[in-house]
Structures are given as structure tokens and as C-alpha cells.
Design brief:
It contains 20 helices and 30 strands. The chain has about 650 residues and is an alpha/beta fold. Bound molecules: adenosine-5'-monophosphate-propyl ester (PRX).
Length: about 650
């Protein structure tokens, strides 16, 4: 469908009826919403029976705003729930992970029994290294099964993983290790990207120069590249883990045992360690995975095409699928490793039934064109999911038509690192879908869209998205900073969780997400803080001042655009501006990650400021998107903006 047709279609506010897409009998029915709504705490306690407990909980929620406890008198082991219990139930021979490498001819099929032994060996190795309950263990790994094994082994011991996306720089890794005093790191020598081996361990070596808390590093040999070795600190996985006993007697931990940290960008320069605890998180992961994707464990082949370095990988590669005992695909490579039809070959060859990915990837696949789909049978697919950023209706329709063959419901799932699991999404076969809308809060979740004063907005209006009641997988806090936790999420509308997103209720009352309302950007589904990038840029020796904004981008959703003033000494005046821009981009890449590299850097003699000295980012956003400029009357010098607009235009033509 062309854009104008979609627009016309949307104008009529039409939707796809649930039954039109879905022949299966759904796991839940419409009645579930009402049941959950009438007594959410009782409903969640009922859902807790999805887990196997050593001591079953009798309590549901203990709420001491903004601090929640769920199922607090229960005892369990997270790793037992993901792995061992399926073996105990007779599913040991079932495939847990079908791992597909970046290279064409490399794969591993790991059954639940094999996974159990791998996790046991890893847990024994970590014990031998001194890992104990409550310790923080950083995981800086490529997309290989050992990453999942390490996570499961860590939580098996009651310790916490802090997975850092392997695309982050040594500096970003160091700051995350330091913030939570990790004692151990699990990593690999390197990783493959489109057939090329890239090193990973040197970033760990560099990070650890400034991390005295780290005692041992466990290293998977993935690429066999030459790496520097520290005899007292470093241990090869294939030596230490593989020689361990393949059984490990798990211990039970309290429901509220700290489980993991996931660092994410906020509105300040410092990433925050989002804390999740055990049982509530697992109940959220297990319940939402089953309901949102309508999982049929006996027959589904699930594929969450995300990285374990982000929350999507945690909840819907590791915990949700394994708790539900499904067979899943884990893919190491990029969408075009080995050709632009690589994904479709994987779907066809393995008979993938559930595919979950991000709008930015869908837009990239769409840009590559449908010729790559020709000859591939995608009819095994039955539910398609999207996450991470608002999906534009055109990409939604393409996904539905070309990948889903017009008969797979699309679940546009809204959630966050902080929410732990999906909060707003259609349910296959139960809820209607609309291109670009996340539709409805899930059973057990109560959301609202409110105005500045915290009042619910009527249908047809927009406002701030809030969650009005606690839910099991909600973050329990920001590591080491309870004040920031209370301030960031619970102070704007007291007692209510402020998500930081704008949302609209349409005339039917269905929810559309509108993007962030704070200084957080969303680039290719990666959450980045404008302030953090500004700090990085200002750290470059030639930069005086920087302002970063997120500008719309056709493929990546938003793109980083930086406005920079330089401090050039007389000797520096002759420097080539293009070279400086490139140096700044490289600097950001080194300090944070290549994903934070500005798409555009505009060098300007001045930044637009209010009379009180604040940089007017709103105006810069307008400039970056080449929109008509709004009110400039509060500016000290309105001519600055037209000058920057001029520079921007010049820059665009140079591009
Ligand atoms: O702005 C929302 C956007 O991603 C943010 C959360 O980012 P992160 O914690 O990195 O987690 C991403 C994966 C869960 C949200 O505040 N976001 C996430 N899903 C959607 C979305 N925006 C619109 N529609 C979505 N489906």
C-alpha cells in the first residue's frame, strides 16, 4: 500500500479484526482483561504459578511507594525454572536453542539437557572463581550460546548479571563495571560481523585498567584471534568451564533476590543501572511472552532478533522463551551477513513461527526491497512482533503484507528496560490491530494518558503515558541511587509511574505511542541520552560547547545531530573543519559507542540561548529537521538561529 492509501485508510480509523488474521485458538480470551482488572493482585498471584517454586508465595504485592515487592514470601531458583524443570518434565531432548552463526555453514543445536549441563558447568566454574550470591558479574559478549549460559549460571548462584552490549566502548564498559563494583567479567576474544573477526577482549583489558574491583575474567574463544593474556586474572572458558562437573545442585533464593542490572540512558549524562529482582521479573517475562506471542511450546519455533545486550534480549531471548520451554533461534549475525535474504532463509529453513524485531530493522529490510523475499516460503510465520520505537504505518503494512502474508497479527509492543516486560500490545486473535498503534495495556497492567496536571485525557487527545498501578516486573530501583529513582519516575505524578513517553488515545480509546518527551533519543531502537553525547563531545579537546538533538530519520527513526562550537587557538585556526568533524565523530564512538556517533555535526560560532543562558534545543531540533522555526523571542540573539540554519543547509548540500 502506498503512503497516501495508508493515510486514507487510517483516516477512516479502520482496524484489522482479530479473527481476520488468526486461525489459532488464542491462549487467552477477551475475558482475561476483565478478570485481571477486577483484582490485579489476585490475577498476578495466579500467574505466579507459571513458575516452579521451592516455597510457593502466598503474598502478591507489598507496596510502599515507590518501592514494590512481589510474591515476597516465595523461594525459587531462576535458572532451574528456565532449564532444569523442563528436563525434569521429560523435555530434555527438545531443542532449546538453535544457534545460527554469522557464517553460512556454522550452527549449533542445543537441547534442554545439553543446556542444563552447560549451565551447571558454568555455574561450577563461576563458583570456583569465587562468585557468590549478591555479586555483580559483567557480561560483555557476542550473540553466542555461551552468553545465555553465563547469564543463567550467574542467576543460578543468586548473583547478578550486568550485561553490557558488546558494541559499547571500553570507557562505557568501565563506567558500568565501576558503578556496580563488578567482581567478575565474562567475555570473548572477539566476534564475527559479516564474516570479519573483530576483537572484543582488548576493550575489556582497557576497561579493567580502571576497575580494581574485578578479580577474574572468563573468556570464550570465539574467533581465535591473538589476545593479550593476564595469567593471574584471565581464564579460558574451554579450559575452566569445560572441565567442570556437569551437574550443579541449585540453591533457592527469596523472590526479591536481586537478579540483574541493565544500564540504560536517562536524561542526565550518567547511565543508570536499572535493577530487576527475581520472581516478579520472571512472572512478567513468562506471562507476557505466552500471552503476547500466543506461544504454543509444542510447535512454535521462536525468533527474537535482538541482542542480549539490551532488555529485549534479556526478556524475550533468555527468560521468556526458556521459562515457556520453547525451541528458539538465536542468530549471531547482521540481517545481511551472507546476503540480504539471510533472514528469510533462516525463517524458511527452520520454520520460524514467531518473529520479533525492531521497526528500524523492518525499515532496512523494506528499503532492500521485496526481491530478496522471492523464492522464500515464509508461511510458517504466524505472529510478528515489533519493539523499541514507534513503527510508522508504512513499515507496519509492509511487515504485514510481505512478511506476514496478510495473515499474521502484528503485535506492536511498548515497554522499557524499566518495565522489564511488555506493557502495551495487541493480543493475537483477541485484540484488533491498527498500523502504528500499540493498542491496549495487557491484562494486569493499568495505564493512563494524562495531561500536565495528571488528569486523564479523553479519547482523541494526547498526553503523558503513565502506569497507575505497580506490576511484578517493574524495576525495583536505580543501582545505588534511590533518590534518582524516586525523582525520575515517581515525582512528576506522585504515586504513578512516569514513563517518559508521549502517547495518544484515538477515538476508539486505543493507544498510539508518540516518542520520548524528555532528552532521550531513540536511534535504531537504541536509547541514547542527548546529555551523555554532549558530555562526550565536550570532552574532545577542540570543543567549547555542544548541543545534541534527535532529528527524524527515515531508517533509524531518529538520528543524532550535534551543534558544536570550537575553541580554536591561533595555531588551530587553519585546521580543516571536515577533519575536526570526523575526529569528533570518532571520539564519540570511542567514548560511548559507534551507535552514538552523530549523523551530522554542524560547527557554528554560537549556539542559540535563552536570556537565562539555556541552550534552546527545541529550536535546534527544528533546524535539524529543517522545519519552520517557532517562537524565537526569548533568544538573546535571534540571528544566531538563522545563521545556524544557513550552516545546516550548506552542510546538507555538501553531503
Ligand atoms: O520511547 C519508548 C521506546 O523505547 C523506550 C524504551 O527503551 P529501552 O528501555 O531501551 O527498551 C527498548 C525495548 C523494550 C520507550 O520509552 N519504545 C519501546 N517500544 C516502543 C517504543 N516506542 C513506541 N512503540 C513501541 N512499541
Amino acid at each position: 500500500m502506498a503512503n497516501d492509501q495508508i493515510e486514507a485508510w487510517l483516516q477512516e480509523n479502520r482496524s484489522f479484526a482479530p479473527s481476520a488474521d488468526f486461525a489459532q485458538k488464542s491462549n487467552v480470551t477477551e475475558a482475561e482483561y476483565g478478570r485481571a482488572h477486577s483484582d490485579p493482585e489476585a490475577w498476578w498471584l495466579e500467574q505466579s504459578a507459571r513458575l516452579t517454586w521451592t516455597v510457593a508465595p502466598t503474598r502478591s504485592l507489598d507496596w510502599n511507594p515507590p518501592f514494590a515487592k512481589w510474591f515476597s514470601d516465595g523461594m525459587l531458583n531462576a535458572s532451574y525454572n528456565c532449564v532444569d524443570r523442563h528436563v525434569d518434565n521429560g523435555f530434555g531432548g527438545k531443542t532449546a536453542i538453535h544457534w545460527i552463526a554469522d557464517a553460512e555453514n556454522e550452527e549449533r543445536v542445543i537441547s534442554y539437557s545439553e543446556l542444563q549441563q552447560m549451565v551447571a558447568r558454568c555455574a561450577n566454574a563461576l563458583l570456583a572463581l569465587g562468585v557468590r550470591a549478591g555479586d555483580r558479574v559483567a557480561v560483555y559478549m557476542p550473540m553466542i550460546p555461551e552468553a545465555v549460559v553465563a547469564m543463567l549460571a550467574i542467576v543460578r548462584l543468586g548473583a547478578m548479571h550486568s550485561v553490557v552490549f558488546a558494541g559499547f566502548s571500553a570507557e562505557a564498559l568501565a563506567s558500568r563495571i565501576q558503578d556496580s563494583d563488578c567482581r567478575f567479567v565474562v567475555t570473548a576474544d572477539g566476534q564475527f560481523r559479516r564474516g570479519t573477526a573483530a576483537l572484543l577482549k582488548p576493550a575489556v583489558d582497557e576497561a579493567l585498567l580502571n576497575c580494581p574491583s574485578v578479580e577474574s575474567v572468563l573468556v570464550v574463544k570465539r574467533t581465535s584471534q591473538e589476545v593479550v593474556w593476564n595469567e593471574t586474572r584471565d581464564h579460558w572458558w574451554h579450559e575452566l568451564v569445560d572441565s567442570q562437573n556437569s551437574t550443579h545442585q541449585y540453591e533457592s533464593f527469596p523472590a526479591e533476590q536481586d537478579m540483574f542490572l541493565m544500564y540504560t540512558s536517562g536524561t542526565t549524562g550518567k547511565p543508570k543501572g536499572i535493577l530487576h529482582t527475581t520472581a516478579g521479573y520472571l512472572v512478567g517475562a513468562a506471562t507476557t511472552y505466552s500471552n503476547v506471542f500466543d506461544i504454543k511450546p509444542a510447535t512454535d519455533i521462536c525468533w527474537t532478533a535482538a541482542d542480549i545486550g539490551w532488555i529485549t534480549g534479556h526478556t524475550y531471548i533468555v527468560y521468556g522463551p526458556l521459562l515457556n520451554g520453547v525451541s528458539q533461534v538465536m542468530y549471531e549475525g547482521l540481517p545481511d551477513s551472507g546476503g540480504r535474504d539471510r533472514w528469510w532463509r533462516i525463517v524458511e529453513n527452520l520454520g520460524v513461527t514467531i518473529l520479533y524485531t525492531a521497526p528500524t530493522t523492518i525499515r532496512t529490510l523494506m528499503k532492500w526491497g521485496t526481491s530478496h523475499l522471492i523464492g522464500h516460503n515464509l508461511s510458517s510465520l504466524r505472529v510478528l512482533g515489533t519493539v523499541g520505537e514507534p513503527i510508522n504505518p508504512e513499515a507496519w503494512m509492509w511487515y504485514r503484507e510481505f512478511i506476514g502474508g496478510n495473515n499474521c497479527p502484528i503485535v506492536d509492543t511498548w515497554w522499557q528496560t524499566e518495565t522489564g516486560s511488555i506493557m502495551i500490545s495487541p493480543l493475537p486473535g483477541v485484540t484488533s490491530t491498527k498500523p502504528g498503534a500499540a493498542m491496549r495495556a495487557l491484562p494486569g497492567i493499568t495505564i493512563d494518558v494524562v495531561d500536565e496536571q495528571g488528569h486523564s485525557v479523553p479519547n482523541g487527545h494526547g498526553g503523558f503515558l503513565v502506569v497507575t498501578r505497580p506490576w511484578p516486573s517493574m524495576t525495583r530501583g536505580i543501582w545505588g541511587d534511590p533518590d534518582r529513582f524516586a525523582e525520575t519516575y515517581w515525582s512528576r505524578f506522585p504515586g504513578t509511574y512516569f514513563a517518559g513517553d508521549g502517547a495518544k488515545r484515538d477515538d476508539d480509546g486505543d493507544i498510539w505511542l508518540l516518542g520520548r518527551v524528555d532528552d532521550v533519543m531513540n536511534v535504531s531502537g537504541h536509547r541514547l541520552s542527548t546529555t551523555e553525547i554532549e558530555h562526550a563531545i565536550v570532552g574532545f579537546h577542540l570543543v567549547a560547547e555542544a548541543a545534541v538533538v534527535g532529528a527524524s530519520d527515515e531508517t533509524t527513526g531518529q538520528a543524532v545531530v550535534a551543534f558544536v562550537t570550537l575553541k580554536l587557538s591561533d595555531d588551530d585556526q587553519s585546521q580543516d573543519h571536515a577533519a575536526i568533524i570526523e575526529q569528533i565523530r570518532q571520539h564519540v564512538s570511542r567514548v560511548i559507542s559507534p551507535i552514538a556517533k552523530p549523523r551530522q555535526i554542524i560547527l557554528t560560532p554560537e549556539l542559540p540561548k535563552t536570556r537565562s543562558g539555556k541552550i534552546m534545543r527545541r529550536l535546534l531540533r527544528d533546524v535539524a529537521e529543517q522545519r519552520a522555526l517557532g517562537d524565537v523571542t526569548t533568544l538573546t540573539d535571534p540571528t544566531v538561529v538563522s545563521m545556524i540554519s544557513g550552516l545546516m543547509e550548506q552542510h546538507s548540500t555538501e553531503d
